[in-house]
Amino acid sequence: MGTTADLRPGAVIIYNGDLHTVLESEHRTPGNLRAFYQVKMRNMKSGKLSENRFRSGESIEFARVERKNYQYLYNDGTNLHFMDNDTYEQIPVEPEKLGVAINFLKENQEAQLAFYDNIVIAVDLPPHVNLLITHTEPGVKGDTATNVLKPATLETGATVNVPLFINEGDMIRVDSKTGTYVERVKE
Questions:
Q1: Domain residues of the chain, as ranges?
Q2: Would you tell me which of 56, 126, 168, 171 could form a disulfide with 35, CB atoms 3.0–4.6 Å apart?
Q3: What is the CATH number of domain 128-185?
Q4: Which residues, in sequence order, are CB contacts of 87 under 8 Å at separation 6+?
Q5: Do domains 66-124 and 128-185 have the same CATH topology?
Q6: Residue 62: CA atoms inside 13 Å, Cβ hemisphere, count?
Q7: CATH number corresponding to 2-62
Q8: Would you write out the chain's pLDDT as a tens digit for each of its 187 residues?
Q9: How far apart are alpha carbons 46 and 161 in whole angstroms?
């Protein structure tokens, strides 16, 4: 158990019987009213965002979540298989645990698995991943307008909008949370 003063972004709490990740927590003291915490959180099971007010000093049940690095091995059609780098133990994980990030997951990539009561509740990729462009239309010479984007297919099969100067065979860095192009990478 903890109090509202312990609410920090990234903390996992048990609220209405479900696990929620705290995204934002703001302490407010409106005039002559009692102080409260306005908390923005995401349900880890459904992925839905919600906001709630907690009275200042109110008891909150925090969940003890363990995080450990794993290596992604393969997809067998129903589950994704990850391997513990220390013990070589393999763990199957449902694809729904990754959300949008599944589009940027490639074999032998590192990922962080979050466990609650020895059950995988979330899979987090690194903030940015480097991926190869397998198909994109070539840019037209002289077409140099700023902020013009074109679709490009990545080695994982995902499609990302990239600037005109990006060609097939280029390596780019992609934000794994939003799925947006960050920069071209030289290897």
A1: 2-62, 66-124, 128-185
A2: 56
A3: 2.40.50.140
A4: none
A5: yes
A6: 16
A7: 2.30.30.30
A8: 788 888 888 889 999 888 898 989 999 888 888 889 999 998 887 778 899 999 988 889 998 889 899 999 998 888 999 999 889 999 999 888 887 788 888 889 999 998 988 888 888 888 899 999 999 888 766 666 667 888 999 998 889 999 888 888 889 999 988 888 999 888 7
A9: 28
DSSP tally for the chain: helices H, then strands E: 0, 16
Answer yes or no: pTM beyond 0.70: yes
Quote the strand ranges of 44-176, DSSP E: 49-55, 59-62, 66-75, 80-84, 90-93, 110-116, 119-124, 128-136, 149-154, 159-163, 171-175
Amino acid in the structure at residue 70: Y
Question: Which residues does residue 18 pair with via DSSP β-bridges, in sequence order?
Answer: 15
Gap between the Cα atoms of 161 and 153, Å rounded: 9
Nearest to 181 by CA among 119, 111, 95, 104: 104
Candidates 43, 36, 41; CA nearest to 121 is 43
Please say whether the beta carbons of 37 and 27 come within 8 A: yes
CATH of domain 66-124: 2.40.50.140
As given in the structure block, the two tokens for residue 144 are 């140099």
